[in-house]
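Submission checklist for the structure archive. All mandatory fields must be present; incomplete records are returned to the submitter.

[x] Identifier: 3-dehydroquinate dehydratase
[x] Organism: Streptomyces bathyalis
[x] Residue count: 156
[x] Sequence attached
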Amino acid sequence: MPHSADLPDDIPVLVLNGPNLNLLGLREPDIYGKDTLAGIEELCRETAAAHGLRADCRQSNHEGVLIDAIHEARTAHRAIVINPAGYSHTSVALRDALAAVELPVVEVHLSNIHKREAFRHHSYVSAVADTVICGAGANGYALALAHTATLVREKR
Ligand code: DQA
């Protein structure tokens, strides 16, 4: 099977959002902001397009579904932008999946996880991410897509 780096230019970037992020806008807005997931996904598509990329946005509350999406990305996507949400702090399996697919990975958190409870300070995903963006709110996704364009260009 061809690796994504060998595939044509219109291959999208996978934007993957983890558990509870479907509730953005309603969920603890003082921490996560008022933007809905639909709004953030639109921002991702617009930013990707402005940088000559295409964003394929998905969200799941299920660890296995997220892992399957990451495996699929190996041949179907150019790079992964991921907010692993609560699984950041618990999931070795998600970390292993990201390591296995060998794509550029940008980890995003809306909040600054280092300013919050101690259990949020460690993310299993960070060790396999090229870049980590946290504490920039919804704009973090725009920063992530813009930076992904750089990572994708560097990989070519
Ligand atoms: C989050 C931070 C996580 O600690 C939390 O479990 C989330 C969202 C963020 O975007 O700030 O669900 O990833």
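[x] Structure attached
Curator remark: The first helix runs from residue 29 to 32. Helices lie at 29-32, 37-50, 63-76, 92-101, 139-155.
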